[in-house]
Specification:
The chain is an alpha/beta fold. It is 44% helix and 13% strand. Helix 2 links the parallel strand 2 and strand 3. The structure holds NADP nicotinamide-adenine-dinucleotide phosphate (NAP).
Length: 251
Amino acid sequence: MNLTDNTILITGGTSGIGRALAEAFYQRGNQVIIAGRRQHLLDEITAAHSGMHGIQLDVQDPADIEAFASRIREQFPKLNVLIDNAGISKTEDLTSDPIDFFAIQSMIQTNIVGVLHLTALLLPTLKQQPHSTIITTTSNLAFVPISPYPTYCASKAFLHSWLQSLRVQLRKTSVEVLELVPPYVQTELGGASQATDPAAMPLADYIAEVMQILSTPNLPHGEILVNRSKAYRFAERNGDYEQIFASRNEK
Ligand SMILES: NC(=O)c1ccc[n+]([C@@H]2O[C@H](COP(=O)([O-])OP(=O)(O)OC[C@H]3O[C@@H](n4cnc5c(N)ncnc54)[C@H](OP(=O)(O)O)[C@@H]3O)[C@@H](O)[C@H]2O)c1
């Protein structure tokens, strides 16, 4: 994709990967709109980046998604990049009684339904532009799940599968479909300690590698894969899926 002169909407733009991507695209001369629930962060980030827009959005609420999409279509008719990045991750104990079904439902609504709903509402606008891109954030864990996160891992595997079909269906339109596959990165997705966990990839390093990859034309399979993601992504093909799965899911 061209890294300048786009109108880019980033969900989950208030923190972590989404915020860092928003800042990287802003610095390269793009019109950037960030979305998330935390108004104080939308205010703080947009105040520090003149011309950046922040719009509140709760992807758990279908009515809010509808109203938000209408506003985007009206206010930003040149929207040509949608980065579906908002996501949540919760551990689940499927041996407990009762099982916390609310946690399961909230992950499915945020990580799957919200993504499909917003994409469906904004695709007509994206298709009107000469060059458009959809980037959806999945995970290493789409390819090798870890057992404390059954629904989270499955939600990302769902998106990986869905994106392949979407890419083929849109191949004769102006819309390219990319999959952002983060490894374990220093954000607060899994709690405050993740942001300084030495086992996680530093956020700035991750974003620098992603921007470098994005500047490469014709990404293989439309996947934005940093080096740290490759062992998981290609575990089956490399014949070491069983070993990686076992090492991450010790009994
Ligand atoms: N960090 C990692 O290790 C890692 C690895 C693989 C994949 N990922 C994926 O990367 C994406 C970004 O995560 P992150 O690591 O940057 O964590 P993060 O800092 O917690 O960011 C999550 C973002 O999602 C937004 N969000 C959550 N629920 C929302 C809702 N109901 N409505 C609207 N926005 C919502 C949050 O904004 P508000 O709270 O303001 O709503 C926040 O901006 C996620 O899809 C995650 O699954 C992360």
